[in-house]
Amino acid sequence: MRVAEAIKHWVVAEGMRPGDKLPSESELMERYGHSKGTIRESMRILEAQGLLKTRTGPGGGSFVHEVSEARTRALLANYFYFRDLTIQDIYQLRKQLEPDLVYSLAGKLSDDVLDELKSITDQYAEPPGDAEEDRRHHEIALTFHAKLAEQSENQLLGFIIRFMADTLSEVTTSRRLFEPANRELWSKGREYQLRVLKALRAGNGQMARDVMLEHMQFAEKLMIQQELRVKRQFGDF
Predict the structure, then answer these.
(1) CA neighbor of 126 nearest in space, from 115, 118, 137
(2) Containing H/E element for 52?
(3) CB–CB of 222/182 below 8 Å?
(4) Euclidean distance between CA atoms 77 and 80, whole angstroms
(5) Whole-number Cα distances in Å, 66 to 120, 125, 156, 224
(6) 147 shares its domain with 33
């Protein structure tokens, strides 16, 4: 593992980019003073982490590979899979991060992005007819927040908010929190998003922040109530 870390640090120090080819196996053996078996195992570790890709045949070798955000979020989700995250855990972060996000975006979004955000809310303009449609509405609503996160100049902030959206979607689906459908969550949630969008169009950061915080507080309250209803209906998860 130490050799794998050393190779990774060397790649960064050399300023290598995705697609760049690493030195040959023999060169790495000489550089790090380890056997062929150790070097191969280190390369397998880095490939399993998604940081390298190995190609065989003419022109083959080991190449720097950029880990996709989707894979990173999936791996991080696996870490939390057995840790019993609560609705409160998720919204504790959302209440801290998302109001600040929209505050920072006010007056900076293009008309195209604002129109795309509006089109997302249009996709669930009608109330859900059943639990399955409620689930789809919720997933669409979360794409509104993910789209906002994509606009952040702070890549870490954007990543965390998108991960929170993924996590909330997984928690609500696995715990059947759409049974029965909750029309109040749909109607008020969409109303809050439209108000946030209006504030963003007007360049009013403080209004966007206040509305988003109110949105998060309301959603947390209703999601907790919904979870209690489902527990009474189906028992503990």
Answers:
(1) 137
(2) strand 52-55
(3) yes
(4) 5
(5) 29, 38, 16, 38
(6) no
Token pair 């028992």 in the structure block, residue: 235
Per-position pLDDT tens, the chain of length 237: 789 999 999 999 999 999 999 999 999 999 999 999 999 999 999 998 889 998 888 888 999 998 888 888 888 888 887 788 889 999 999 999 999 999 999 999 999 999 999 999 999 999 888 878 888 888 999 999 999 999 999 999 999 999 999 998 888 877 777 666 667 888 899 999 999 999 999 999 999 999 999 999 999 998 888 777 766 765 554
Residue 82 CA: distances (Å) to CA of 77, 85, 111, 118: 10, 8, 42, 36
Both 147 and 211 in one domain: the answer is yes
Please count the structural domains in the chain: 2
Note whether 37 and 76 are same-domain residues.
Answer: no
Do 152 and 83 sit in the same domain of this protein? yes
Which domain range does residue 165 map to? 69-234
Asked if residue 142 and residue 97 are part of one domain, the reply reads yes
Q: Are residues 187 and 207 in the same domain?
A: yes
